Please model this.
Amino acid sequence: MVSGAGAPVGRSFGGLDWVVLAAYAAALLAIGFHFSRRQRTTEEFFTGGRRMNPVLAGISVFAAYFSIISYIATPGEYVQYGPTQVVWGMLLALPFTFLIVGWLIIPVIMRLPITSAFELLEARLGRTVRQASSISYVVARIFWMGMILFTASTIMVHVLDCDPRWAIPIATLIGAVTTTYTLAGGIRTVMITEAVQSSMLMVGALLTIILISRNLGGVGAWFPPHWQAHWLPQPIWSSDLHMRTSLVATFLSLLIGGICYTVTDQASVQRLLTTRDAQTARRAYLLSNLAVATVSILLGLVGAALLVFFQRHAEAIPDHLTFARDGDAFFPYYISHYLPRGISGLVVASLLAASMSCLSGGLNATTTVITKDLIEVWSPGERGDAAKMRRTRWLVLVLGVTAVGMCIVMGSVSGDLNEVASKTLNLLICPTFGLFFLAIFVSYATPFGAIIGAVYSTTAAALVGYWDVFTGLPKISFLWLMPISFAVSLAAGSLFSLLPTRGRSATALAGISVATLVPLVAIVAWILRTCH
Model:
């Protein structure tokens, strides 16, 4: 472990660390089974009876947003690329996100008697749009949960210094524990465990900063005094879409992402719906934004401390790690090798907390969407509360198993955690948000225009995210994926809603669909032909 100001002495994950980790898992299961006795109806399972405290709801919204990907990627981004994205961009974007979501979006959501976010689409755009967006959400959430498990298991392999083949058994164990307490206790358990897990996340980051400061002789020894030589240029603005980071691109990506996630992510909407009115929900959302800002700064400081720690103790860096290429690896490596026994187990528990909170929220939210937007729409026959609860819990179990299977797929996408998350998890966010935007703000919007707009937006997102794969040219910065997809979604959806499609026959709609998709196919073909 680290002691004094001397050279660090590495160690492995020890017995006391395992005790702390086991106690943490047992506590989560106990909370789940405690609240399982209250789960007699699906309304209680999905919304907690709409009586949850706004402070708890706010912390839970934050936990649903801030995953293990953010927990590891934020310090890693600082180590490898600097503070532009993880600190300055986040702090600039959050106030604007709160104003737009808090005063324009939340009042609309809270005045409707809904359980699923996608229910509000049906009144304006029809059942087909509601179900198409619900299916899109379910697919995206399954990929997202697989990504969470993949990240958690990969990090645990590094922390425990074990054979990489243990990644799948570790992912299975994490998935099993999380699925068990989620299906037992419903949204109430999810939100309470998320509050515990958020506290552990903060404690883990603070302990890392305190111990590094102690080793180096104080905060002033590691607080960043200058731009590091290995950091790429990060200007305020650049017209070069291939430049990885600029402040404007970061701001736009985080602003648009924050708005779109809050509206389209059932996990976030569901937590707001557990409060009693728009004012309470806005207060909960403000708290979640303050928590995101606080933890972003805290984890940025963790990255700064880690960078100087390993610069001062270069002999402690494994041969296969470099600052310019492996930023995501330094936080897990420090946790496993240089924290005192017991504290290491506590910080690893905070890593698991960050993954389990998102996984449990994803399981509950995806089950809600499947139940409310698909099963109960396709098969509206009445069933008793006991039968509905059995079906709900089976759904949670199936989704948990599916998420474990999906985590195997995620290892094939290249890039650091921020890039991988953007190129996989964000592809459908803006296309889906476009549907909500049209339903809420565009009075002349039509189901046809909304769906065609989503097709255009998804194509744009895929082209930006995988530009290097499709064209063989240098990749476009992942920060532009959401702004471009967002602009295409709103423009295409609004434009194609002007077409006279209401009341047309299926044959006529098919012809109009082909006509509207021809320009898209032509543009994509021209891009691919020109670039190759």
The chain has two domains: 15-412, 426-532. Residues 426-532 form one domain. The chain has a mean pLDDT of 82. The chain has 20 helices and no strands.
